[in-house]
Design brief:
By secondary structure, this protein is of the alpha/beta class. It contains eight helices and nine strands. The strands form two sheets. It has a seven-stranded mixed β-sheet, with helices on both faces. A two-stranded antiparallel sheet has the order 5-6.
Length: about 250
């Protein structure tokens, strides 16, 4: 499974680093264990994280979604972004405590020009770990959420990394919303037509089905995509090291 570069993009799901059932509830021990694993890996990494019970809670309360639309009270934009910055601050401190040099980037501009390629490569070459996260951005006619999953795709389209790792709250992708039985070890994007995912509380960005749609777009770039359990640090480390039998894999199109 040779990638096109030595760069790995890691998405830390909001349902992993926060308790999505309780507003603004950080799983500090999980953040610490994931930061430890990322710090132990010698690979060049870009880290993206979701909003979990921080950003999703305020966005859902205000009716802000991934579709562009007007916002009745601009304070809702402030509160959603403030929650995201608060979550991001916890992660940055943890990453730094485990030997990484995080460089936060927000808001993220939806562009893929040569400037951004050089921007990321210069940061990575200087020893920094770029960190991005879901945000609320202006759009024609109002505001919208740009999710961590969408940002992951944009980063992959810029850098063409060898692997994209989604750290989620289960062992991989299950064949049904009941999430029982064995996971799908290798997901074929043709399976999306009949796939039914589950939407979790506070999630305004489409749940697992939307993640799979984005993962298939990433795979079309030639990047291998893995869904692994973010609560299992040893599994995340194996995925970072290039082992593909630790969750659900979508093979990048070569």
């Amino acid at each position: 499974m040779d990638g096109v570069s030595d760069i790995v993009v890691v998405k830390l799901g909001g349902s992993v680093i926060t308790n999505k059932d309780t507003p603004c509830s950080l799983r500090a021990d999980v953040v610490d264990s994931l930061s430890n694993v990322l710090g132990r890996s010698p690979l060049k990494k870009v880290v993206v994280h979701g909003g979990g019970s921080f950003g999703h809670y305020y966005a859902k309360k205000a009716g802000i979604s991934t579709s562009c639309g007007p916002v009745e009270d601009i304070d809702d934009v402030f509160l959603t972004r403030e929650a995201m910055f608060e979550l991001n601050k916890h992660l940055l401190r943890s990453l730094h405590a485990h030997g990484l040099h995080p460089y936060v980037i927000s808001p993220f501009v939806e562009s893929r020009d040569e400037y951004l390629v050089d921007f990321f490569l210069n940061l990575l070459g200087s020893g920094f770990t770029p960190v991005l996260f879901g945000d609320v951005i202006p759009c024609k006619g109002g505001f919208k959420v740009i999710s961590g999953d969408d940002i992951s795709y944009l980063v992959c389209s810029i850098l063409k990394p060898s692997r994209m790792i989604f750290c989620i709250d289960v062992d991989g992708v299950y064949p049904s919303s009941k999430m029982d039985g064995a996971i799908i070890s290798e997901f074929d994007c043709k399976m999306l037509r009949n796939f039914v995912g589950s939407n979790k509380k506070f999630d305004v960005t489409g749940g697992i089905r939307r993640k799979l749609e984005i993962a298939c777009k990433i795979a079309s770039l030639g990047t291998d995509v893995l869904f692994v359990n973010g609560f299992k640090p040893d599994v995340v480390l194996k995925a970072l090291n290039g082992l593909y039998d630790v969750g659900t894999c979508i093979r990048g199109k070569r």
